[in-house]
Specification:
five-stranded antiparallel β-sheet; globular; 39% helix; alpha/beta; single chain; binds S-adenosylmethionine
Length: 348
């Protein structure tokens, strides 16, 4: 992948950071997601809420089930290993006219179609029927959508691109009028010296999903922060990498080898949704799952553990206890429970 990136730069000039990310993550032959195995999972590079506990999918299923009816379609975008869809589909039963797994990775789509034969797996939005009513779920997808990288410099913006010098990838500066105008509008006047992401891809994704259906409910869950919070981040914590459950890999030295991600900009999502005429509310994962009944599930699991212990069923007790521990992890305010949930609605 490194050779491929360098030849591309030598032939075409420096790559914008979103173009670099697109190659590193989604190249079909060498990209982190585009090629190779299914990424989220205990054996892979990081775990996500649905990998931690099936209760994530079940509780989201309760949310989706309430919104079903009238020939609605259910879509999970960025479906990964299918670990969210499996319990979700058990929960919603046949309430939806069709269930789609939208996933860019071939390996992930193959796993989903093997394990969940009733689900239609697709790689692009234009394979999902347009119009009508849709319920869309995206967990930890938006943080992976390619973003541009820029520095606040006085009253202006300087963009970071990826160049190559003597076979080594380096960061280079340039100025781009269009990006500066976008950033003035969407990010505003943060302090000079702040390294910021311009999440143009997130903005486009939100608009595309809202525009895809006549009536739509979208639930986005991700690590996210406001522009003001992001402007306060140390520069070395803006672009994050994951590989083998560890973070901090040099993405320039290891293109295609590590995940590249960032906190989703809450203001970008909210502005994109509102500019399409949608309403948007935000909450955190803990509150969202508690509203869907996570607390009574937790009580039942704890009671079940006690019952099994009284019956001398040590294995049953351990199973109930570990299910409860995993569900608690989804609610942990300092971890997954602190993720942001965006609930977007249009035409309903
Ligand atoms: C961090 S993983 C999350 C997977 C899953 N949602 C979960 O929570 O375990 C992000 C997934 O989104 C997929 N992905 C990235 N960009 C995509 C896009 N534009 N359309 C569909 N899938 C995409 C990746 O291949 C990867 O499987």
């Amino acid at each position: 992948m490194k050779r491929q990136v360098i030849s591309h730069i030598e032939a075409n000039g420096p790559l914008r950071f979103d173009e670099f990310m697109e190659m590193c993550l989604y190249d079909p032959e060498a990209g982190f997601y585009g090629a190779g195995g299914v990424r989220p999972g205990e054996q892979a590079d990081f775990v996500t809420s649905p990998e931690v506990s099936p209760w994530f999918g079940r509780l989201l299923g309760r949310w989706a089930a309430k919104l079903s009816g009238g020939n609605s379609l259910l879509v999970e975008a960025g479906a990964g290993s299918g670990s969210l869809l499996e319990p979700l589909v058990d929960e919603v039963g046949d309430r939806f006219a069709g269930v789609y797994a939208l996933e860019i990775s071939t390996a992930a789509r193959e796993t989903i179609s093997r394990q969940l034969p009733g689900i239609v797996d697709v790689s692009r939005w234009d394979e999902v029927p347009r119009g009508g009513r849709g319920v869309v779920i995206a967990n930890e997808l938006l943080d992976n959508l390619p973003f541009r990288l820029l520095d606040r410099h006085g009253d202006d913006w300087i963009e970071y691109c990826v160049g190559a010098i003597d076979g080594t990838l380096t960061m280079e500066h340039r100025r781009d009028d269009e990006l500066a105008a976008w950033s003035d509008r969407e990010i505003g006047a943060v302090s000079p010296g702040c390294l910021m992401t311009a999440q143009v891809g997130v903005s486009r994704w939100v608009a595309d999903v809202i525009g895809h259906f006549d009536e739509v409910h979208v639930c986005i869950v991700d690590y996210a922060a406001t522009t003001d919070e992001l402007a306060g981040r140390p520069r070395n914590d803006v672009v994050r990498t994951y590989y083998g459950h560890r973070t901090g890999f040099d993405f320039l030295a290891n293109p295609g080898v590590t995940d590249i991600t960032t906190d989703v900009n809450i203001d970008t999502v909210v502005r994109a949704a509102r500019s399409c005429g949608a309403t948007v509310t935000t909450t955190d994962q803990r509150s969202f799952l508690l509203d869907l009944g996570a607390d009574s599930v937790l009580e039942e699991l704890v009671d079940q553990g006690h019952e099994r212990a009284r019956a001398g069923d040590t294995m049953g007790q351990l199973v109930a206890r570990s299910e409860a521990t995993n569900l608690r992890a989804l609610l942990d305010p300092g971890g997954l429970g602190g993720f942001t949930v965006f609930l977007i609605e249009k035409g309903t």
